[in-house]
Amino acid sequence: MRPGRLPLLWLLAAALGCATTKIPGTEIEETSDSRAILGVMTKYNAALDAQDAAAILALVDTSFYDDAGTLTPEDDLDYNGLKTKLPTLLQKLQDVRARITVKTMRVEGDRASVVYTYAVTYRIGQKTQTDTDIKQMEFKRVNGVWKITRGV
User: Cα separation of 128 and 121, whole Å?
Assistant: First the structure.
């Protein structure tokens, strides 16, 4: 090998070594944080399917606060309100099937946000209903674990 090619090969190897990989089926960079946050989203989806309020609450930080996207405070929900209302809501539903698809993710230090779509089909009595929407869920890292702070 000619001596002039060695630096070029080193540059090429360094560039390839720094290439980022994407999580399959997404444009999200694969990192330990993105995998951990997607893991929380997967657990959230499974807990919703199982109508398991305790499992959902285990994913939520006590600093949780959601204004439901409105300016009026009547529909605002903090952690204690979620703890009270979520079990009651889930008990009213039958045959819940949720499908969550993460669209984008932004991680900045110990904070992260995910934009996702969801389709939830459920039954109340004899009536089956499907709700779909685009939402944003926010997270913070607490003692090394990602917790939901908004967007349930």
Answer: 7
Within a domain: residue 12? Answer: no
* Higher-pLDDT residue of 7, 41: 41
Whose CA is closest to 120, among 108, 133, 131, 136?
131
Query: How many domains is the chain partitioned into structurally?
Result: 1
Residue 15 lies in a domain: no
Tokens 């003692």 locate to 143
Task: Say which CATH number the domain at 89 has.
Answer: 3.10.450.50
User: What pLDDT shows up at residue 6?
Assistant: 47
- What whole-number distance in Å separates Cα of residue 137 and Cα of residue 35? 15
Residue 57 lies in a domain: yes
Sequence-separated (6 or more) residues with CB below 8 Å from residue 139: 37, 40, 111, 112, 113, 114, 146, 147, 148, 149
Alpha carbon of residue 132 to chain centroid: 16
H or E stretch covering 23:
none
Q: Which domain holds residue 76?
A: 26-150
Average the pLDDT over 127-133 and give the result: 96
Residue 10 lies in a domain: no
Confidence of residue 10 (pLDDT cuts 50, 70, 90): low
